[in-house]
Amino acid sequence: MEIAIANHKGGSGKTTTTLNLGCVLRDLGFRVLLIDLDPQGNLSYSLGVNNFPFTSADWLIGHTTLSETAFEVSGLHLVPADLRLSNLENEIMALGNSQILLRKRMEGVSYDFVLIDCPPAFNVYTRNALSVSDFVLIPMLMDVLSIQGTLQMLKIIEQVRLTSNEALKVLGAVGVAVNGSRKLSNEISEYLAEHCNVKLFNQKIRNSVKVAEAPSHAQSVIDYAPESSSALDYRNLAQEILTEIRKKSQEKLKINSLGS
Ligand SMILES: Nc1ncnc2c1ncn2[C@@H]1O[C@H](COP(=O)(O)OP(=O)(O)OP(=O)(O)O)[C@@H](O)[C@H]1O
Ligand SMILES: [Mg+2]
After folding, report:
1. If you measure from the C-alpha of residue 255 to the centroid of ligand 1, how many angstroms do you get, rounded to a whole number?
2. Ligand 2 centroid to 14 CA: how many Å?
3. pTM of the predicted model, to two decimals?
């Protein structure tokens, strides 16, 4: 199962959510691969992986295999990224079928969950993530401007559905770094459901200083501060997400059987 963690808007909690969700799924006994597709390399850095010969871009292009590129770290597998992704972007775009390179690389690769951390841009890396994924999860801050970002994101998803991945589904939106009023959260939730047909998960991730501290210890907040409010929130969120995946996968099965 491949899940792209994406939002066009910067600083919306994509990397934090990828890492912590990955660690919760690991703790539940799942085999998890994290793919860093952001030239900022924040996901890799957050796991203390900052000196490596090959990046996710080398793998996408076909310069390297998955086993040459991936690291085992904190009980997870990670395909790392850094600024070299920016240098290779033009080379990737010049290749044929540049949107679906990751899909090709993932053929025959078997993990319970593959979580893909996208950059805050609709570039070739985000396209590759969305083109290979079953689901997209949209982390967002609980403010009004973030609704605009989510609406833009939905347009991007629609483009990908039309061009390279008809089966792509929105899993839902996750409110992160939340410390505001319940009223605003409820209003945003209603808006997303009514106007965008997007579920905002009930479980929000509260604002916590532990989340900001964890990367400097090369750890997720799940490992760094397992009793913190945000670790608890991510564990609860993972349960809600697993339930939603089961529900949406059954819907998909029903639709497929109707079509046959
Ligand atoms: N629950 C939280 N509590 C406090 N700070 C948080 C929380 N979630 C995220 N942050 C902080 O918000 C900032 C942005 O988070 P993150 O890097 O996950 O966003 P992003 O969407 O990946 O950003 P970018 O678009 O640059 O890739 C980071 O400094 C992170 O530590
Ligand atoms: Mg990020």
Report:
1. 36
2. 5
3. 0.95
Q: Cα–chain-centroid distance for residue 221?
A: 17
Note the Cα 246 to chain centre separation in Å: 18
Q: How far apart (Å, rounded) are the C-alpha atoms in residues 202 and 249? A: 20
Spell out the domain ranges in the chain.
Answer: 2-259
pLDDT mean over 229-253 = 91
User: For residues 196 and 158, which has the higher predicted lDDT (pLDDT)?
Assistant: 158
Is there a contact between 236 and 244 (Cβ–Cβ < 8 Å)?
Answer: no
With the most atoms of ligand 1 within 8 angstroms of its CB, the residue from 46, 140, 211, 233 to mutate is: 211
Instruction: Answer yes or no: are the C-beta atoms of 46 and 215 closer than 8 Å.
Output: yes
Q: What percent of the chain is helix, strand and coil (3-state, nearest 5)?
A: 50, 15, 35
pLDDT of residue 180: 72
What would the pLDDT profile of 97-143 be if each residue is shown by its tens digit? 999 999 999 999 999 999 999 999 999 999 999 999 999 999 999 98
User: How many Å apart are CA 62 and CA 86, to the nearest integer?
Assistant: 17
pLDDT reading at 259 higher than 80:
no
Residues comprising the chain, all counted? 260
**CATH fold for the domain made of 2-259:** Rossmann fold (3.40.50)
Probe residue for ligand 1, chosen from 5, 7, 8, 15 as the CB with the greatest number of ligand atoms within 8 Å: 15
Please list every protein residue whose CB sits less than 6 Å from any atom of ligand 1. Answer: 10-16, 38, 40, 42, 120, 176-177, 205, 207-208, 211-212, 230
The candidate with the shortest Cα–Cα distance to 85, out of 69, 96, 74, 103, is: 69
